[in-house]
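Exercise 7b. Backbone tokens:
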């Protein structure tokens, strides 16, 4: 895995009126890694992703995504980033294949190129059987799988996944986590994964960032954080224990 930063922020801040959503955030995501972006609801994860995508402007500080400035070069950023938003939206009155075709066209892919890729992606995420169904009738898990299919077609360098397992049952969750792992391993896509599902993140993240009240209170591999915070050095570290320790410190 390279050590080159593909996402970088420096002193990034975002306030909504008097509400500080992101406070002096400096961190990086390195090429090829799965970065687990953790934090409770309201800690500023989505706001950070929106700034990285150029969908909202920082109040202060800067960000770079693959050397582009999202505030000035949002289109270039969008071209190389795959994004699954928290509330993933598709056209409800179109089926999965039609939605993917539409997305492929938006990404300037000719139908002759995208057709085969669309079929392959639908197969990969197990939606082949339900492809005739309108997406409006899809469950949350199926929508997330369609989001993964979208990423497979776009083949971005980086994927921002905002709470992709939220509201899924255990089976659906495991499935999505497996797909995310394969985006990383097989497609070599750098992953920035926001979540508060510690167990799932622990399974796939190379490094973890813990965000509390808009501040990143810890960044590093789980083993390093566990050693620093809990003084433990064994293989049985639980991310829950590490996370709770940081949380207690901040709330104290
Ligand atoms: N558009 C907005 N207007 C006002 N406040 C917002 C807006 N978006 C987010 N916030 C506030 O910013 C904080 C961080 O929210 P968010 O980034 O969504 O956190 P997370 O994704 O970690 O749950 C919260 O207090 C939230 O209420
Ligand atoms: Mg969020």
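Sequence design result:
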């Amino acid at each position: 895995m390279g050590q080159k930063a593909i996402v970088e922020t420096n002193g990034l801040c975002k306030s909504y009126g008097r509400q500080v959503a992101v406070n002096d955030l400096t961190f990086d995501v390195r090429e090829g890694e799965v970065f687990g972006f953790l934090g409770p609801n309201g800690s500023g994860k989505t706001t950070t992703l929106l700034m990285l995508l150029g969908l909202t402007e920082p109040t202060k500080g800067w960000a770079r995504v693959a050397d582009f400035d999202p505030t000035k070069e949002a289109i270039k950023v969008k071209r190389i980033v795959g994004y699954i938003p928290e509330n993933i939206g598709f056209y409800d009155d179109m089926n999965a294949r039609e939605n993917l075709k539409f997305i492929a066209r938006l990404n300037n892919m000719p139908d002759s190129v995208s057709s085969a890729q669309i079929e392959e992606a639908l197969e990969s995420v197990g939606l082949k059987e339900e492809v005739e169904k309108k997406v409006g009738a899809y469950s949350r898990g199926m929508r997330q799988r369609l989001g993964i299919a979208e990423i497979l077609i776009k083949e971005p360098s980086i994927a921002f996944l905002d709470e992709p397992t939220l509201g899924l049952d255990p089976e659906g969750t495991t499935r999505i986590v497996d797909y995310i792992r394969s985006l990383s391993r097989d497609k070599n896509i750098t992953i920035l994964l926001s979540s508060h599902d510690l167990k799932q993140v622990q399974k796939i993240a190379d490094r973890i960032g813990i965000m509390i009240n808009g501040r990143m209170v810890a960044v590093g591999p789980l083993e390093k954080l566990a050693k620093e915070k809990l003084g433990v050095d064994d293989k049985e570290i639980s991310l829950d224990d590490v996370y709770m320790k940081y949380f207690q410190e901040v709330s104290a």
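Instructor comment: The CA atoms of residues 31 and 222 lie 18 Å apart. The longest helix spans residues 170-185.
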